[in-house]
Amino acid sequence: MIKGAVIGATGYAGQQLVWFLHNHEYVKIEFVVSHSYADEAFSKIYNNYTGFIQNKCINIQQAEYKLEEIDVLFIALPHGKSFDIVKKALAKGVKVIDLGADFRLNEAACYEKWYGVEHKFPELLNDAVYGLVEIYRDEIKKTRLIANPGCYTTASILALYPLLNKGLIEMDSIIIDAKSGVSGAGRGLKVTSLYGECNESIKAYGIAGHRHTPEIEQELSKAAGEKILLNFTPHLVPMNRGILATCYGKLKNNISQEEIYKIYKEFYKEDYFIRIVETLPETRNVRGSNLCDIGIRVDERTKRVIVISAIDNLIKGAAGQAVQNMNLMFGLEESEGINVLSMAI
Amino acid sequence: MIKGAVIGATGYAGQQLVWFLHNHEYVKIEFVVSHSYADEAFSKIYNNYTGFIQNKCINIQQAEYKLEEIDVLFIALPHGKSFDIVKKALAKGVKVIDLGADFRLNEAACYEKWYGVEHKFPELLNDAVYGLVEIYRDEIKKTRLIANPGCYTTASILALYPLLNKGLIEMDSIIIDAKSGVSGAGRGLKVTSLYGECNESIKAYGIAGHRHTPEIEQELSKAAGEKILLNFTPHLVPMNRGILATCYGKLKNNISQEEIYKIYKEFYKEDYFIRIVETLPETRNVRGSNLCDIGIRVDERTKRVIVISAIDNLIKGAAGQAVQNMNLMFGLEESEGINVLSMAI
Amino acid sequence: MIKGAVIGATGYAGQQLVWFLHNHEYVKIEFVVSHSYADEAFSKIYNNYTGFIQNKCINIQQAEYKLEEIDVLFIALPHGKSFDIVKKALAKGVKVIDLGADFRLNEAACYEKWYGVEHKFPELLNDAVYGLVEIYRDEIKKTRLIANPGCYTTASILALYPLLNKGLIEMDSIIIDAKSGVSGAGRGLKVTSLYGECNESIKAYGIAGHRHTPEIEQELSKAAGEKILLNFTPHLVPMNRGILATCYGKLKNNISQEEIYKIYKEFYKEDYFIRIVETLPETRNVRGSNLCDIGIRVDERTKRVIVISAIDNLIKGAAGQAVQNMNLMFGLEESEGINVLSMAI
Amino acid sequence: MIKGAVIGATGYAGQQLVWFLHNHEYVKIEFVVSHSYADEAFSKIYNNYTGFIQNKCINIQQAEYKLEEIDVLFIALPHGKSFDIVKKALAKGVKVIDLGADFRLNEAACYEKWYGVEHKFPELLNDAVYGLVEIYRDEIKKTRLIANPGCYTTASILALYPLLNKGLIEMDSIIIDAKSGVSGAGRGLKVTSLYGECNESIKAYGIAGHRHTPEIEQELSKAAGEKILLNFTPHLVPMNRGILATCYGKLKNNISQEEIYKIYKEFYKEDYFIRIVETLPETRNVRGSNLCDIGIRVDERTKRVIVISAIDNLIKGAAGQAVQNMNLMFGLEESEGINVLSMAI
Asked: Is residue A200 a contact partner of residue D238, using CB atoms and an 8 Å limit?
């Protein structure tokens, strides 16, 4: 039995992680940590767990004393908040999966520029593996520190990686127009997250400045073997869950839609959670699951390829991917405990 | 391995059944039947199943030739459509779980009055067990024909049964004000089911004439030991899933909220899927699960008790309950394959 | 030109009032008051008004110095917050329309019991007229202080008044099961008002203790000529706007649905904003308008009458009704400036 | 008084037109035509109009006999259906505003290629004026036949026109990623328009083949003075109304965001319904109105400009624009009868 714990368990991603760990045959949740709800029963915060999850939330100071009791620590905190606990957990030999942003960017300087926060332990960046299983499976199996990818980034990178890896599109032609459900904004109290302010409306936000941009660029640059800059535009959509990334690139050469489909199917042929689909992806087809659906269209008039990916932002974009990483780190079947299909409606 | 089949597999309840049977460790889906989509791949109708469910839909004539291959047949057809296939399946020794209305009412005359259709095999009504597990567990284990309860009726009966069984309320004081998500209207093409007609609005419908009324009355009359008439008012709510039943009754005697809670907890103490909750039920806490949450309030000013129940209409109100019945019929753990918690958002 | 001002202008009801006053041919908005957004442009808080409304929000202290500049003051504050400003405005000869609860209950003791706040000026209760135009039209024309009714109360009273006034139902048989859109919870920052917590779910709240209960009882008791206690159960529905009140009463005598329809049509025959409809009301048919739709059904099996009313909670339940009151107080056509039809979708 | 009529009055755009014409001070609706609901009261189809609009729907044959009674005919039919009635109406001296696609493309061949239908009266294409007021105001005043623009096209052209007119971006760099509410799909019975299939999901559709593409290209080519091909990708968003168009172009030269804002403000300075906004547009800010909000961002890293526009698809994208055209054709104030602000929630 793997002994696990979750810090930031009452946020939307954190509680989704608890959902999966609770169901996981080989995991026991030792403790859950919540700053806002310390000492309260977890199921009082999330009534869906009533009668099934007995844990009481503890605070992070209490958690530090319990690090020795666990094998793996999941952290779902805002950026800048996980440095110390990661350090301490690693020192105790605990494997760490950080769902936040603090270890995703390889360069501390880049982190500091985009997040406006000093990186406390840049030396740990060498140890951290970017937890996108489909790209870094082997490294993940061996590491003790996972930087779990962001939600937008997961959808964007999975959609574009093969195109760049195979050198099919112009490097300066990439536009990612992404759409997310409201849970992506978290459970914090903001006017913009109120029902009345989100419902029956769509808007873009964070244009040209969203913090997932450098993360996408970092990974796609590696895929391409050269430095890439791209446009990433997130939008807020009136639905609870889901990300749809509509990705555009200019084709370098004549290549048919069919051929690109073949390349994608080959590229992802070992990946249980990637579905290369003929129809256009809809977020509802992956909602509640760890799947990523990818569909491809070529516009012959404009010589552009449009690749569309759909994920559940809280699962493949956060908690599900975290468990997928854990499974690999502990030698389990990759899909263990996260092999759930979407419900159609 | 239990060999099962689903007729009406492309309706909303039918496809939810496929979801559960696909996940069920001890079931193999032998075939799925769809009138509208015969010969099409099931996963082409419901893209969420792409890559996971390979079945092609067959038509009912083809299904009749395959009855010998199966142990259990689930039927999710509109009322009046299941008579023949039920008869034939039983004759072949196949156990039948009918999610439709044709075998729910004990009296053929009552069925004919409310549904306006002649009952073709009234003699089978004696064999049929009303598949509300929490009330008829023992009978279900022994039967070969289950009349799976309606969605509104499940929520209503579970909410009110103990009150009536213990004789706590005036028999003529019962009002059930129920609210359902839109999936309850099915996948048929009706203007009233279009997004633009349902979204951002709530309405009542079928007042004083909804067909779940006699079904609720039948079962609650049995609970009370006398004939009950009641008011049942369904409403359509802009959400995909969920039923909330707000049930009112006039208390015969002074009895505290606490005492009623005690009675409910005792009554349902063996029932895995019933949660007697202190807070007021919300449909999201049971969405995606086979649970029924029940909360109780006493208004001392008016001497009324208000019992509120919440279920997922497609699961505890249809497909989940059907699997729960199947589990009992085949000697399995009651929660096998349906032990899924709701996701919080 | 009537010179008006709004206190609490950046709440949901307040901004809706600004919408109507801005459109009103005979009103000029002199100032708008917001505690949270003093000194900010109103259209920066609500971008829909960009380019059309130039007012900057002021604070309440500044407002007090400007009372002499206005003819009418609208107040949309939480209960307990309007006492002083009402007093001061009246002293300056300003007519006051209070959208809050402080002057709705005739008895200070009743107010203090349900709201837990001392009533600072009980003597003003004699001056206050309950601003339900359809019932108190003549008194409204003559008063200087309007207690604008609550949203649930407006829907409930309009639905039940004729039944009680004509003595058609048992006094102790009344149940009001009401459903409201999320804007009814206001713009305050609460976890329960977040998109992810409201969307795709329905729940009841405040059972047996909601503060609109005594207000409904007060007015229906007057209609009946005797003291009435009733059950009022509010529910939260995932939509922005709208209230549907499903009201139940036990008929004293045999009376047909048709006859009750006749009574309602007669009772409301002079009322522009009341529609007695044959179909069952849907909130979308009144959304964006000041209308109240009322539909009636008799269940002959149980001898109950079910009356359903639908309003827009922010309009007929708040801002629209406030303008309707103002129109009467200033001798204008009752529908002036609020004669807007709902958009169908 | 202008005597008007609407063909296709029970579709979503048609009924919105009835809403505006009913409110219009200078218009009288002589008749409304509906193929599906001939002989039924219009307010029975759309209950929001109960008591306010008395018209009974007639069929198109009856309408032909009444052409002499009207001054203006609005047609809201699917493509390929308006040829004959347009011809007949013009012959009777009736001004025609066609909300469908049949007269929008200048070249019959282009129409036939994209719509797969023969154009019956190509000679009329010379008379037709493309009814985008902000671009063709003078021509509109003089014409007798308006081709009212499509919803996506209105949002897209208004967003990009100044950029192309001033030659600021590379001609082959344009990508329009557009998002629409579900009412854009109309009221026809399709599984994909059912509540359960649209709610809680987003998808792209019609990639590289949507029929609004040539319409956008035609008008932007005129703006640029050269032939443009571009990518247009529509998406379906779970909300009733609204279009958000996120438009990307590669800047030819260094030009600041501020300068581009200046160019847009100058370009649209006479246009009542265009708001150049500093914040990013949200569809809710224009919902229910004839406004188009436009916001601009420059990404200096990638040298791209992102222009975002928001409209109400049924109003500025259909019915409101049609009335705006009518106002000009009849010498009225452009905003007459359509000067309605959005409600914030």
From this structure: no
